[in-house]
Amino acid sequence: QQILVLHGPNLNLLGTREPEVYGRQTLGDINANLQQIAAQAGAVCSVFQSNHEGELVDRIQKAGGDKVDFIIINAAAYTHTSVALRDALAAVAIPFVEVHLSNVYKRESFRHHSYLSDTARAVVAGLGAFGYEAALRYALSS
Ligand code: DQA
């Protein structure tokens, strides 16, 4: 089983970026935990972070060719702006779970709308880094 975890803009700063909102784990910590869980299950978990929308689109398109089975995506701010990411996910038709560290519904109203949610298998928001783990365990069991 091949699983791709995508992280959008500013998530490279996790650990120091608004830790009261996003937690103290670094992106490296989160990715290492996911890769360990996947390996234990005999799956391959690739991770990719970019601050650039087009690079995320390119990576999703590549996942289509690579026969990735499942995508876990925290598109960060692009969640609320990007028709391009929505269209890329639809184009490859790979099932995905949308993850947010914070509970976006407790926050500013511009974070309440997502261009991804209605085409996602599920949405996890507000569980911190555990949200990625929950999504991964779901993917591994599906
Ligand atoms: C986020 C929530 C987004 O609104 C924000 O732009 C982010 C991170 C989260 O994980 O809680 O960068 O996706």
From TrEMBL:
Pathway(s): Metabolic intermediate biosynthesis; chorismate biosynthesis; chorismate from D-erythrose 4-phosphate and phosphoenolpyruvate: step 3/7
Active site residues according to the UniProt entry: Y22 (proton acceptor), H100 (proton donor)
Name of one Pfam family that matches: DHquinase_II
Site feature Transition state stabilizer, where: R17
Keyword S-adenosyl-L-methionine: no
Binding residue positions for substrate: N74, H80, D87, L101, S102, R111
UniProt keywords, alphabetically: Amino-acid biosynthesis, Aromatic amino acid biosynthesis, Lyase
EC number: 4.2.1.10
InterPro entries in alphabetical order: DHquinase_II (IPR001874), DHquinase_II_CS (IPR018509), DHquinase_II_sf (IPR036441)
Biological-process GO terms, alphabetical: amino acid biosynthetic process; aromatic amino acid family biosynthetic process; chorismate biosynthetic process; quinate catabolic process
Residues forming coiled coils: none
Catalytic activity: 3-dehydroquinate = 3-dehydroshikimate + H2O
Listed NCBIfam families: aroQ, PRK05395.1-1, PRK05395.1-2, PRK05395.1-3, PRK05395.1-4
Family, per entry: Belongs to the type-II 3-dehydroquinase family.
PANTHER family per UniProt: CATABOLIC 3-DEHYDROQUINASE
Subunit description: Homododecamer.
Function summary: Catalyzes a trans-dehydration via an enolate intermediate.
UniProt name for this protein: 3-dehydroquinate dehydratase
Naturally occurring in which organism (per UniProt): Paralcaligenes ureilyticus
Gene transcribed to yield this protein: aroQ
